[in-house]
């Protein structure tokens, strides 16, 4: 039996290409991005709503963000990776796609050792043009996985030995054996293949029971999977383009979902007035606190 839930809008902010929603458990803040205009949103969860606190415009595209130890954030933006402070000042760490205006940075997350991972993709969604990078605490940036198309969700198993990764260009979620000390990958296998229902997999997160929650672009829902790929639950939305999800709020019991208006034709946009807003639902399971950049999660 598949559990069914319905998510409701929880924020008045409307993003064109909302993405990268993440919960900062130290500040009790929700973070999300609007990719093409390069805007970071910060919000506070109160009751069933997310109150908007501030927006920071970076002046370049912004694919993803994660809180950093000691304050501020690391971002995958522009030509690579930078630290960002609350005044909006960017300090560049590395620029692995510098000099290539056809590419941009996309979704990202921190691994259990506090390293930040994010992938690049082509604006034209060219097959195989992207790369997934790992940024260590000292700023060393390593290309870990080449030949991706639209790099999206990244999540780690509770024991830290498996990485799940979605490539929206291929329409797949793959699992890798993950070596926690070195941050290297091996034994790639597909657990969610193309054509497994409406839409394509986008952002994802992992809950406290070790199951995956995957947002499906053009599918209008987030699905919960066993690690082997069996569907356990569906969260339906009144919009077609959910992009990412995370657990947050008190007890990490609320699933927050970012969505997009980007690419909708006029009729679809009129039929989806809430497209681009944040949504939330309490699905009866909690998440796990995500590591900060530079700060390993300790058991």
Description:
- The structure is a single chain.
- A hairpin with a 4-residue loop joins strand 4 (29-34) and strand 5 (39-46).
- The strands form six sheets. A five-stranded mixed β-sheet has the order 1-22-21-20-19, with no helix packed on it. The chain has a four-stranded antiparallel β-sheet with strand order 2-25-24-23, with no helix packed on it.
- 2% of the residues lie in helices and 52% in strands.
- The protein has one helix and 25 strands.
- It starts with a strand and ends in an 18-residue tail after the last strand.
- The chain has a single domain (3-281), classed as Neuraminidase, CATH 2.120.10.
- It is globular.
- With 299 residues, it is mainly β.
Shape label = globular
Please tally the helical runs, counting DSSP H or I stretches of 4 or more residues. Answer: 1
Distance between the termini: 33 Å
List the strand order in the largest sheet: 1-22-21-20-19
Average pLDDT: 96
Output the CATH class name.
Mainly Beta
N to C succession of SSEs? EEEEEEEEEEEEEEEEEEEEEEEEHE
The total domain count is 1
**What are the segments in which pLDDT stays under 50 over at least 5 consecutive residues?**
none
Rg on CA atoms, Å = 17 Å
CATH superfamily: TolB, C-terminal domain
Number of strands: 25
Question: What about the largest sheet?
Answer: 5 strands, mixed
Could you estimate the helical fraction of the residues in percent? Answer: under 10%
Give the amount of beta strand, in percent: over 45%
Which topology does CATH recognise?
Neuraminidase
CATH architecture: 6 Propeller
- The secondary structure category is mainly beta
């Amino acid at each position: 039996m598949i559990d069914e839930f319905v998510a409701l809008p929880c924020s008045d902010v409307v993003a064109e290409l909302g993405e990268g929603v993440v919960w900062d458990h130290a500040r009790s803040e929700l973070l999300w991005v609007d990719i093409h205009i390069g805007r970071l949103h910060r919000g506070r969860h109160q009751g069933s709503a997310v109150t908007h606190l501030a927006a920071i415009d970076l002046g370049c595209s912004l694919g993803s963000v994660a809180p950093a130890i000691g304050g501020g954030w690391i971002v995958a933006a522009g030509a690579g990776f930078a630290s960002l402070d609350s005044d909006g000042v960017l300090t560049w760490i590395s620029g692995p796609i510098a000099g290539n205006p056809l590419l941009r940075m996309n979704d990202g997350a921190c691994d259990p050792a506090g390293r930040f991972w994010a992938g690049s993709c082509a604006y034209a969604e060219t097959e195989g043009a992207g790369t997934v990078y790992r940024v260590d605490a000292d700023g060393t940036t390593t290309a870990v996985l080449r030949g991706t198309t639209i790099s999206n969700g990244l999540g780690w198993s509770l024991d830290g030995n498996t990485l799940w990764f979605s490539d929206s260009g291929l329409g797949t979620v793959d699992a890798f054996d993950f070596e926690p000390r070195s941050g290297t990958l091996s034994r790639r296998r597909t657990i969610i293949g193309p054509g497994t229902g409406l839409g394509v997999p986008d952002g994802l997160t992992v809950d406290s029971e070790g199951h995956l929650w995957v947002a499906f672009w053009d599918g209008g829902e987030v699905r919960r999977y066993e690690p082997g790929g069996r569907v356990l639950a569906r969260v339906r939305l009144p919009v077609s383009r959910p992009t990412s999800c995370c657990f947050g709020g008190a007890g990490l019991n609320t699933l927050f979902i970012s969505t997009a208006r980007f690419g909708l034709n006029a009729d679809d946009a009129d039929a989806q007035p809430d497209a681009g807003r944040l949504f939330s639902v309490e699905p009866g399971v909690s998440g796990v606190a995500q590591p900060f950049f530079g700060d390993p999660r300790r058991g």
